[in-house]
Amino acid sequence: MNGHQRQVVIDATDELGRTLHAEGRTLNSFGIQINPNLASIDCLTEWSFDGQTGFGQDNDDWTQPAAREFFRHHRLGS
After folding, report:
1. Residue 73 vs residue 15, higher pLDDT
2. What pTM value is reported for the model?
3. Which of 5, 14, 22, 23 could form a disulfide with 10, with the two C-beta atoms 3.0–4.6 Å apart?
């Protein structure tokens, strides 16, 4: 386990009342330091919604203090 996302679920309703349920399964992950206080984990993601499958991206952005707290608390990467 490396702390990178493996699954993403989105449930949304727009202002017209239309709903969307989408599930994403990440196929890989890439961590990058965007600037001195922001890290990003980017993943190629296979999305399923409305009986369809598509591919896209999921980004998980962290400030450095939040990332340190998460990884210390979960003791990942050791």
Report:
1. 15
2. 0.74
3. 22
